[in-house]
Amino acid sequence: SSKIRNMEVQSADGVAVLEDCIGFSLTKTISRVEEKLKKGGLPDCPDDDIIPSVGNEMAAEAQIRFLKAKLRVTQEDLANVVFECRKKDDENQNLETRLKDTEEENARLQHTISMQQSQTEKYKVLSQEANKKSEGLQQEVIALEKVLQ
């Protein structure tokens, strides 16, 4: 049988029961199955593969033990699936958190880029004005040098 990792399990009449499935009364279900077996057995289902063909020759107690063992294995499988689902849910939550953080960082960086682009445009305009002023002053200097000569 497979091992259950990180799952809390309770025992009821020697059968493992997941805490998530406590609302489901396993003992009542087993009691009903036992009563049906005592009253004359369960209805025959040719497609039912729970009890193999040898099961027809088994005594009622052996069938109950077999069904309990099958139930235990199924519950262990369920516990493993629940564990994997929880693990995937945790992983999804972590990824969602990382995505949210990344989107926030992206928005912050976009804002920074937009601010820097506006500052770049502002400094380009100031630079062009300074270049024009510098050219005007150079021409004035040239004109003044001609006057001085």
> What is the total domain count?
1
With strands numbered from the N-terminus, the spatial order across the biggest sheet is 1-2
β content, as a range?
Answer: 5-15%
- SSE order: EEHH
Organism: Xiphorhynchus elegans
Keywords: Coiled coil
Protein name: TEX9 protein
Coiled coil: 85-147
Compact overview of the structure:
Helices cover 69% and strands 5% of the residues. With 149 residues, the chain is mainly α. Keywords: Coiled coil.
Give a written overview of the molecule.
The structure is a single chain. The chain is built from 2 helices and 2 strands; from the N terminus they run E-E-H-H. With 149 residues, it is mainly α. It has one domain. A two-stranded antiparallel ribbon has the order 1-2. A hairpin with a 2-residue loop joins strand 1 and strand 2. It is rod-shaped. The N terminus is likely disordered. It comes from Xiphorhynchus elegans (elegant woodcreeper). This is TEX9 protein.
Task: Summarize the helices and strands and which ones pair or pack.
Layout: E1 9-12, E2 15-18, H1 26-39, H2 60-148
Antiparallel strand pairs: 1-2
Which key terms come to mind for this protein?
single chain; 149 residues; mainly alpha; two-stranded antiparallel sheet; 2 helices; 5% strand; rod-shaped; disordered N terminus
